[in-house]
Amino acid sequence: MAGFITTDELKKKIDDKENFILVEVLGPETFAEFHLPGAINVPVDDTFEANIQAKVPDKNMPVVVYCRDIECHASAKATKRMELLGYATVFEYHNGKEGWKAMGLPTEVGPSK
C-alpha cells in the first residue's frame, strides 16, 4: 500500500518516535547539505533496489520517502519501485526537504550513516 503523508503527520511520527524508516532518495551530496531528522539516504538510481533492500530488509516496516520539493518526482519513482519489491506500507512526503525546512522544522547535516 502506498499513500501520501502531510508535514503535520510526518512531524508527529518523528516526535512520537514511531517505528518507521525515513528515506531521502536524492544523491549523497544533496543529502549531506541537509536532511530530515533521522533520515537515511538511498538515491533513486540503478542500484536503488539492491540498496533499499539492504538498508530496509523488513518489507513490513512502514517507510516514508521524500526528495527535494513538490516539483521533484524522485520520491514517486522510489515509491513505485518499492511497491514492486513488495514493501507493504510506503508513504510519499510530497513537500520534500525544502517544504519541511520552509516550515521552520529541524534538519540535520552530514553524510548518511
| CATH class category name | Alpha Beta
Low-confidence stretches: none
**What is the assembly state of the chains in this entry?**
single chain
CATH topology: Oxidized Rhodanese, domain 1
Helix count, DSSP H or I runs of 4 or more residues: 5
Rounded average pLDDT: 95
N-to-C SSE series?
A: EHEHEHEHEH
Helix/strand structural class: alpha/beta
How many structural domains in the coordinates? Answer: 1
Question: What Rg do the Cα atoms give?
Answer: 13 Å
Query: What portion of the residues fall into strands of 2 or more residues?
Result: 15-25%
What's the number of extended β-strand segments? 5
Give the strand line-up of the largest sheet.
Answer: 1-5-4-2-3
Helix content: 25-40%
Q: CATH superfamily name?
A: Rhodanese-like domain
Q: What general outline do the C-alpha atoms trace?
A: globular
Main sheet makeup:
5 strands, parallel
CATH architecture classification: 3-Layer(aba) Sandwich
End-to-end C-alpha gap? 27 Å
Pfam families: Rhodanese (PF00581)
Protein name: Rhodanese domain-containing protein
GO molecular function: thiosulfate-cyanide sulfurtransferase activity
InterPro entries: GlpE_sulfurtransferase, Rhodanese-like_dom, Rhodanese-like_dom_sf, Thiosulphate_STrfase_CS
